[in-house]
Amino acid sequence: MKRGKITVIGSINMDLVVKVDVHPKAGELVTGKGLEYIPGGKGANQSIAAALSADAEVALIGCVGEDAHGTALLENLRAKHVNIDKVVVDAKAPTGLAQISVDRHGQNMIIYNSGANFRLLPEHIEMEERKIAESDMVITQLEIPLATVERIAQICNKHGVPLLLNPCPAMMLSDELLRRVSFLVPNEFEGAALCGINPPENIEDAIRITELLETKTPGSVLMTIGASGVLIVTEHGIKHMPAYKVDAVDATAAGDTFIGAFAGRYVNGASLEEAAQFATAAAAITVSRLGAQVSIPTRVEVEQFLREHPQD
Ligand SMILES: Nc1ncnc2c1ncn2[C@@H]1O[C@H](COP(=O)(O)OP(=O)(O)O)[C@@H](O)[C@H]1O
Ligand SMILES: [Mg+2]
């Protein structure tokens, strides 16, 4: 397989992860079971998934503070084979921080402070136009300023570089931005928010949302629906690719693993459906482990999982 080039432009955070039995309600205190500092951020997670799970050549453009978290995060990315030469270090803001609690069912709750991520500006993207133009795919999310995402989309379109947008956190987006996207990959909540409607309650609702999304973008739509898998719009209609059955320990970074593994496998030469199947396996492994980046499997682990779980 060839090694395609991916540029990820997005967030880099430290995750503070605490395990709890049950999440607290407002005004309530619950005692956690241990505290861990785990590198996170959607940009960083998706970069690592593309590099580690799919073995693509990955560079990350993002912004961290000039602090200990920033230094640790960049070292970690380098160790996971992500090129960080284009990451901006900003002395005026703290590195992004996410406080995550995970309950006994593996469901997570997150409070997020964007910090330096919101200091990644359109001008930083303009400086990296050549890097973008040389990419086989660019991946971005919405944990950086929207004006920056819009500039990314314009530059990708100018050079004919496919743009994968993971529209997270959930929000409405302009038709103009959605028209510039080649791969739109929301989860069910983000997909519903893009349509301005309530999250789906069943698979039929989810299919309707996917159909609506397909009218908003010329690109391919892949809507991930957690333990139910992913809905993919193909030439032959909507395909439902079920998730693998695993013991869910922690769903953090399931979507990020899916996106990075999908994009990496795709630029390395797989078809859209092959790449989605590979990504579904990679995400299933992530769900079966505690933590975000630390859960993301290597290509060898995904290939072994696929051999052990043949499709019916
Ligand atoms: N409980 C689970 N068991 C197996 N696979 C899962 C589970 N939850 C998520 N996945 C896999 O991860 C992908 C992304 O998960 P999803 O929850 O939709 O994204 P996000 O993390 O963005 O909310 C799904 O399409 C599925 O393949
Ligand atoms: Mg989910």
Question: What do these coordinates show?
Answer:
The chain has 312 residues and is an alpha/beta fold. It has a single domain (5-25, 33-308), classed as UDP-N-acetylmuramoyl-L-alanine:D-glutamate ligase, CATH 3.40.1190.20. The chain contains 11 helices and 15 strands. The strands form 3 sheets. It has a 9-stranded mixed β-sheet, with helices on both faces. Strand 14 and strand 15 (237-241) form a beta hairpin. Helix 1 packs across helix 9 and helix 9 (254-267) packs antiparallel against helix 10 (272-287). The chain is globular, with a radius of gyration of 18 Å. It starts with a strand and ends with a helix. The mean pLDDT is 95. Bound molecules: adenosine-5'-diphosphate and magnesium ion. Residues 187, 226, 251 line the site of magnesium ion.
